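Objective 1b of the project was to move from sequence-level analysis to a structural picture of ligand recognition. The entry below was assembled by the postdoctoral researcher (A.K.) and checked by the PI before modelling. It contains the amino acid sequence of the target and the SMILES of the bound compound, nicotinamide-adenine-dinucleotide.
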Amino acid sequence: MEIRDRVVLVTGAGSGFGEAIARAFSAEGGLVALLDLRLEQAQRVAAELPKGRGIALQADVSVGEAVQAAVLAATKTWHSPSIVVNNAGFTHKNRSCLEVDEATFDRVFAVNVKSIFHMVQAVVPAMRDGGGGSIINIGSTAGIRPRPGLSWYNASKGAVSTLSKSLAVELAPWKIRVNAICPVMSITGMFQDFIGGEDTPETRAKFLSTIPAGRFCEPSDVAQAALYLAHSDFVTGIELPVDGGRTI
Ligand SMILES: NC(=O)c1ccc[n+]([C@@H]2O[C@H](COP(=O)([O-])OP(=O)(O)OC[C@H]3O[C@@H](n4cnc5c(N)ncnc54)[C@H](O)[C@@H]3O)[C@@H](O)[C@H]2O)c1
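Corresponding predicted holo structure:
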Protein backbone atom coordinates (compact mmCIF):
# COMPACT_ATOMS: atom_id res chain seq x y z
CA MET A 1 0.00 0.00 0.00
CA GLU A 2 1.21 3.48 -0.83
CA ILE A 3 1.48 5.45 2.42
CA ARG A 4 1.41 9.02 1.07
CA ASP A 5 -1.80 10.83 2.13
CA ARG A 6 -3.14 7.77 3.93
CA VAL A 7 -4.40 8.29 7.47
CA VAL A 8 -2.20 6.31 9.85
CA LEU A 9 -3.34 5.86 13.44
CA VAL A 10 -0.63 4.88 15.93
CA THR A 11 -1.42 4.11 19.56
CA GLY A 12 1.14 4.72 22.27
CA ALA A 13 2.75 7.19 19.87
CA GLY A 14 4.12 9.44 22.60
CA SER A 15 7.17 7.33 23.36
CA GLY A 16 9.36 4.35 22.42
CA PHE A 17 8.31 2.19 19.48
CA GLY A 18 5.11 4.17 18.82
CA GLU A 19 7.01 7.44 18.50
CA ALA A 20 9.45 5.91 16.00
CA ILE A 21 6.58 4.33 14.04
CA ALA A 22 4.70 7.64 13.88
CA ARG A 23 7.80 9.47 12.66
CA ALA A 24 8.55 6.79 10.05
CA PHE A 25 5.04 6.87 8.56
CA SER A 26 5.11 10.65 8.55
CA ALA A 27 8.43 10.60 6.67
CA GLU A 28 6.68 8.53 3.97
CA GLY A 29 3.95 11.16 3.59
CA GLY A 30 1.29 9.71 5.90
CA LEU A 31 -1.26 11.78 7.80
CA VAL A 32 -0.51 10.56 11.30
CA ALA A 33 -2.90 10.47 14.26
CA LEU A 34 -0.84 10.00 17.42
CA LEU A 35 -2.95 8.49 20.16
CA ASP A 36 -1.61 8.24 23.70
CA LEU A 37 -2.76 8.17 27.29
CA ARG A 38 -0.29 11.00 27.90
CA LEU A 39 -1.48 13.80 25.62
CA GLU A 40 1.55 16.01 26.19
CA GLN A 41 3.87 13.26 24.95
CA ALA A 42 1.81 12.75 21.80
CA GLN A 43 1.74 16.54 21.29
CA ARG A 44 5.53 16.70 21.64
CA VAL A 45 5.95 14.24 18.75
CA ALA A 46 3.12 15.69 16.63
CA ALA A 47 4.69 19.16 16.89
CA GLU A 48 7.79 17.83 15.12
CA LEU A 49 5.87 16.40 12.15
CA PRO A 50 5.17 18.49 9.01
CA LYS A 51 2.52 21.13 9.70
CA GLY A 52 -1.05 19.85 9.34
CA ARG A 53 0.10 16.24 8.90
CA GLY A 54 0.12 15.07 12.51
CA ILE A 55 -2.47 15.32 15.29
CA ALA A 56 -2.20 14.28 18.92
CA LEU A 57 -5.19 12.56 20.51
CA GLN A 58 -5.67 11.60 24.13
CA ALA A 59 -7.27 8.20 24.74
CA ASP A 60 -6.96 5.15 26.92
CA VAL A 61 -6.95 2.26 24.42
CA SER A 62 -8.68 0.00 26.93
CA VAL A 63 -11.81 2.20 26.87
CA GLY A 64 -14.09 1.59 23.88
CA GLU A 65 -15.72 5.04 23.79
CA ALA A 66 -12.32 6.73 23.96
CA VAL A 67 -11.02 4.68 21.04
CA GLN A 68 -14.18 5.41 19.01
CA ALA A 69 -13.83 9.14 19.76
CA ALA A 70 -10.17 9.18 18.70
CA VAL A 71 -10.92 7.40 15.43
CA LEU A 72 -13.77 9.85 14.78
CA ALA A 73 -11.47 12.81 15.46
CA ALA A 74 -8.88 11.51 12.98
CA THR A 75 -11.60 10.82 10.42
CA LYS A 76 -13.06 14.33 10.80
CA THR A 77 -9.60 15.89 10.47
CA TRP A 78 -8.71 13.99 7.26
CA HIS A 79 -10.54 10.77 6.41
CA SER A 80 -10.86 7.30 7.93
CA PRO A 81 -7.63 5.44 8.81
CA SER A 82 -6.20 3.04 6.21
CA ILE A 83 -3.37 1.92 8.48
CA VAL A 84 -3.64 1.31 12.22
CA VAL A 85 -0.76 0.35 14.49
CA ASN A 86 -1.92 -1.05 17.83
CA ASN A 87 1.23 -0.40 19.80
CA ALA A 88 0.24 0.88 23.28
CA GLY A 89 1.12 -1.69 25.90
CA PHE A 90 1.36 -2.35 29.60
CA THR A 91 3.16 -4.93 31.72
CA HIS A 92 3.32 -6.04 35.30
CA LYS A 93 6.78 -5.90 36.81
CA ASN A 94 9.00 -8.94 36.32
CA ARG A 95 8.08 -11.10 39.33
CA SER A 96 6.62 -14.44 40.35
CA CYS A 97 3.29 -15.27 38.72
CA LEU A 98 1.93 -15.60 42.26
CA GLU A 99 2.74 -11.99 43.12
CA VAL A 100 0.78 -10.27 40.36
CA ASP A 101 -2.61 -9.12 41.69
CA GLU A 102 -5.88 -9.50 39.82
CA ALA A 103 -6.30 -5.80 39.05
CA THR A 104 -2.86 -5.73 37.41
CA PHE A 105 -3.64 -8.88 35.42
CA ASP A 106 -6.85 -7.25 34.20
CA ARG A 107 -5.00 -4.07 33.23
CA VAL A 108 -2.41 -6.06 31.23
CA PHE A 109 -5.13 -7.77 29.20
CA ALA A 110 -7.24 -4.62 28.88
CA VAL A 111 -4.39 -2.56 27.43
CA ASN A 112 -2.67 -5.26 25.36
CA VAL A 113 -5.62 -7.34 24.11
CA LYS A 114 -9.01 -5.70 24.68
CA SER A 115 -7.63 -2.54 23.07
CA ILE A 116 -7.43 -4.43 19.78
CA PHE A 117 -11.07 -5.51 20.17
CA HIS A 118 -12.03 -1.85 20.59
CA MET A 119 -9.88 -0.71 17.66
CA VAL A 120 -11.24 -3.39 15.33
CA GLN A 121 -14.80 -2.30 16.17
CA ALA A 122 -13.84 1.32 15.50
CA VAL A 123 -11.88 1.03 12.25
CA VAL A 124 -12.88 -2.12 10.36
CA PRO A 125 -16.30 -1.00 9.04
CA ALA A 126 -14.77 2.05 7.29
CA MET A 127 -11.80 0.00 6.03
CA ARG A 128 -14.22 -2.58 4.60
CA ASP A 129 -16.34 0.10 2.93
CA GLY A 130 -13.24 1.90 1.67
CA GLY A 131 -11.76 -1.17 -0.02
CA GLY A 132 -9.22 -2.39 2.53
CA GLY A 133 -6.55 -1.50 5.05
CA SER A 134 -3.62 -2.67 7.12
CA ILE A 135 -3.73 -3.39 10.85
CA ILE A 136 -0.39 -3.92 12.57
CA ASN A 137 -0.33 -5.19 16.15
CA ILE A 138 2.75 -4.93 18.30
CA GLY A 139 3.14 -8.31 19.95
CA SER A 140 6.43 -9.48 21.42
CA THR A 141 8.98 -12.26 21.43
CA ALA A 142 7.38 -12.77 24.87
CA GLY A 143 4.47 -14.42 23.06
CA ILE A 144 6.76 -16.81 21.16
CA ARG A 145 9.63 -17.55 23.55
CA PRO A 146 8.50 -16.43 27.02
CA ARG A 147 10.86 -15.46 29.83
CA PRO A 148 10.10 -16.31 33.47
CA GLY A 149 8.69 -13.55 35.68
CA LEU A 150 6.47 -12.08 32.96
CA SER A 151 3.88 -14.86 32.61
CA TRP A 152 0.71 -12.78 32.43
CA TYR A 153 2.29 -10.24 30.09
CA ASN A 154 3.66 -13.10 27.94
CA ALA A 155 0.16 -14.59 27.73
CA SER A 156 -1.30 -11.27 26.59
CA LYS A 157 1.27 -11.08 23.78
CA GLY A 158 0.51 -14.69 22.81
CA ALA A 159 -3.08 -13.54 22.44
CA VAL A 160 -1.95 -10.65 20.23
CA SER A 161 -0.22 -13.11 17.87
CA THR A 162 -3.20 -15.49 17.75
CA LEU A 163 -5.82 -12.82 17.23
CA SER A 164 -3.70 -11.20 14.51
CA LYS A 165 -3.71 -14.50 12.58
CA SER A 166 -7.39 -15.10 13.22
CA LEU A 167 -8.38 -11.58 12.15
CA ALA A 168 -6.16 -11.92 9.07
CA VAL A 169 -8.13 -14.96 7.92
CA GLU A 170 -11.48 -13.40 8.72
CA LEU A 171 -10.83 -9.97 7.20
CA ALA A 172 -8.87 -11.05 4.10
CA PRO A 173 -12.00 -11.06 1.87
CA TRP A 174 -12.39 -7.35 2.65
CA LYS A 175 -8.73 -6.72 1.71
CA ILE A 176 -7.87 -5.87 5.31
CA ARG A 177 -4.51 -7.30 6.29
CA VAL A 178 -3.60 -7.98 9.90
CA ASN A 179 -0.05 -8.71 11.04
CA ALA A 180 1.89 -8.78 14.29
CA ILE A 181 5.41 -7.52 14.95
CA CYS A 182 7.25 -9.33 17.74
CA PRO A 183 10.18 -7.23 18.97
CA VAL A 184 12.77 -8.37 21.46
CA MET A 185 13.68 -6.29 24.49
CA SER A 186 14.42 -2.61 23.95
CA ILE A 187 15.53 0.20 26.26
CA THR A 188 12.21 2.06 26.17
CA GLY A 189 9.80 3.17 28.88
CA MET A 190 8.86 -0.44 29.68
CA PHE A 191 12.42 -1.73 30.11
CA GLN A 192 12.59 -1.23 33.87
CA ASP A 193 9.45 -3.32 34.43
CA PHE A 194 10.69 -6.08 32.11
CA ILE A 195 13.96 -6.56 33.97
CA GLY A 196 12.29 -6.28 37.37
CA GLY A 197 15.40 -5.60 39.41
CA GLU A 198 18.03 -2.92 39.20
CA ASP A 199 19.18 -1.70 35.78
CA THR A 200 22.90 -2.50 36.07
CA PRO A 201 25.49 -3.35 33.40
CA GLU A 202 25.39 -6.94 34.73
CA THR A 203 21.60 -7.18 34.30
CA ARG A 204 21.81 -5.76 30.79
CA ALA A 205 24.59 -8.22 29.92
CA LYS A 206 22.44 -11.09 31.19
CA PHE A 207 19.57 -10.16 28.85
CA LEU A 208 21.89 -9.31 25.96
CA SER A 209 23.42 -12.78 26.17
CA THR A 210 20.01 -14.19 25.12
CA ILE A 211 19.95 -12.17 21.87
CA PRO A 212 22.24 -13.76 19.23
CA ALA A 213 22.78 -10.45 17.38
CA GLY A 214 24.23 -9.02 20.60
CA ARG A 215 22.21 -5.84 20.90
CA PHE A 216 18.82 -4.68 22.11
CA CYS A 217 16.02 -3.80 19.70
CA GLU A 218 15.90 -0.15 18.63
CA PRO A 219 12.59 1.65 18.02
CA SER A 220 13.74 2.24 14.43
CA ASP A 221 13.94 -1.55 13.90
CA VAL A 222 10.24 -1.83 14.77
CA ALA A 223 9.33 1.20 12.66
CA GLN A 224 11.04 -0.35 9.61
CA ALA A 225 9.11 -3.58 10.12
CA ALA A 226 5.84 -1.64 10.38
CA LEU A 227 6.57 0.17 7.09
CA TYR A 228 7.34 -3.16 5.42
CA LEU A 229 4.04 -4.65 6.60
CA ALA A 230 2.04 -1.60 5.54
CA HIS A 231 3.62 -1.72 2.06
CA SER A 232 3.36 -5.48 1.49
CA ASP A 233 -0.05 -6.12 -0.04
CA PHE A 234 0.25 -9.91 -0.08
CA VAL A 235 1.55 -10.34 3.47
CA THR A 236 -1.07 -11.08 6.08
CA GLY A 237 -1.36 -13.11 9.26
CA ILE A 238 2.34 -13.23 10.09
CA GLU A 239 4.04 -12.73 13.43
CA LEU A 240 7.26 -11.04 12.41
CA PRO A 241 10.06 -11.36 14.94
CA VAL A 242 12.28 -8.27 15.10
CA ASP A 243 14.59 -9.87 17.56
CA GLY A 244 18.20 -10.36 16.44
CA GLY A 245 17.59 -14.10 16.49
CA ARG A 246 16.12 -14.41 20.00
CA THR A 247 13.28 -16.74 18.94
CA ILE A 248 15.39 -19.17 16.89
N1 LIG B 1 10.35 -2.31 25.09
C1 LIG B 1 10.41 -3.60 24.87
O1 LIG B 1 11.37 -4.28 25.27
C2 LIG B 1 9.29 -4.30 24.13
C3 LIG B 1 9.56 -5.54 23.54
C4 LIG B 1 8.54 -6.17 22.85
C5 LIG B 1 7.31 -5.57 22.73
N2 LIG B 1 7.07 -4.36 23.32
C6 LIG B 1 5.75 -3.76 23.13
O2 LIG B 1 5.92 -2.57 22.40
C7 LIG B 1 4.84 -1.69 22.66
C8 LIG B 1 5.36 -0.28 22.92
O3 LIG B 1 6.10 -0.27 24.11
P1 LIG B 1 7.41 0.60 24.31
O4 LIG B 1 8.48 -0.33 24.65
O5 LIG B 1 7.60 1.56 23.21
O6 LIG B 1 7.02 1.36 25.70
P2 LIG B 1 6.90 2.89 26.09
O7 LIG B 1 6.53 2.88 27.53
O8 LIG B 1 8.12 3.64 25.69
O9 LIG B 1 5.68 3.43 25.22
C9 LIG B 1 4.37 3.03 25.42
C10 LIG B 1 3.44 4.20 25.15
O10 LIG B 1 2.10 3.72 25.26
C11 LIG B 1 1.34 4.64 26.02
N3 LIG B 1 0.26 3.93 26.69
C12 LIG B 1 0.36 3.04 27.70
N4 LIG B 1 -0.85 2.61 28.06
C13 LIG B 1 -1.74 3.22 27.25
C14 LIG B 1 -3.15 3.20 27.16
N5 LIG B 1 -3.89 2.45 27.97
N6 LIG B 1 -3.75 3.95 26.20
C15 LIG B 1 -3.01 4.73 25.38
N7 LIG B 1 -1.68 4.80 25.43
C16 LIG B 1 -1.04 4.06 26.37
C17 LIG B 1 2.32 5.24 27.01
O11 LIG B 1 1.86 6.49 27.49
C18 LIG B 1 3.58 5.34 26.16
O12 LIG B 1 3.67 6.58 25.48
C19 LIG B 1 4.06 -2.31 23.82
O13 LIG B 1 2.92 -2.98 23.30
C20 LIG B 1 5.04 -3.32 24.39
O14 LIG B 1 4.37 -4.37 25.05
C21 LIG B 1 8.04 -3.70 24.00
